[in-house]
Amino acid sequence: MELLKTTRKYSISKLDQVVIIMLAFGLFYCQKRIFKKEEVYHLNEYYKNKTYFLKDNLTISNKEILSKGTSVKIWIESTPTIFKLKCYPSNIDREIAIGKMVTYLVNDDIRGSDFTLESIEELIDNKLTYYDPKEVTKAKTGKK
User: Fold this and answer.
1) What is the pLDDT of residues 28-85, one digit of tens each?
2) For residue range 8-30, what is the model confidence (pLDDT) as tens digits?
C-alpha cells in the first residue's frame, strides 16, 4: 500500500500542452520547403540546357565580379529556409562549376503565396536575359 502512495502520475498541464503543440507546429512549418527535392530536380532538368546573360555586374566578393553580359547557366536550390537561384559560367560543366548566388528568397517571405514556375521566371528575368539561339540565327539570316 505504501508503494502505491509514493508512485506519482505525471501529468502535463494545459500550458505545457499548448507549448508542445506550438513547438511541433513551428518545427513542421519551418521545415516545409517551397519546392520539394524532386521538384527542384525537375526544375534543374528544365533549366540545364538554357543559357542566359547577366543583365548587370554580379558582385561575388571584393575580388570576384561576373561582368554584365557574361554567359551563364542556372541552378536552383531550395532548403527549408531559403530559395536560391545560382549561376555558373556556361562554358564549364555543372559538376565542376562553383555556383554563384544570383538572387534568393527567404521562404517566410513567400510562404502562403503561390510560388510557381512563372514566379521563378520573373526572378530570372529580373537578373538575366535568356539566350535563344533561334533568334540569333533569324537575326543573322534576316528571317522573321
Assistant:
1) 555 566 778 888 899 999 999 999 999 999 988 888 888 999 999 999 998 888 889 9
2) 555 666 666 665 666 555 545 55
Helix and strand numbers (H, E) in the chain are: 6, 7
**Overall average pLDDT of the 86-92 stretch:** 92
Number of domains in the chain: 1
Burial status of residue 90 (CB atoms within 10 A of its CB: 0-12, 13-18, 19 or more): middle
15 found inside a domain: no
For residue 111, give the C-alpha cell: 510562404
Q: Cβ(110)–Cβ(83) under 8 Å?
A: yes
Report if residue 6 sits inside a domain.
Answer: no
102 in a structural domain:
yes
**Residue range of the domain that includes 134:** 33-141
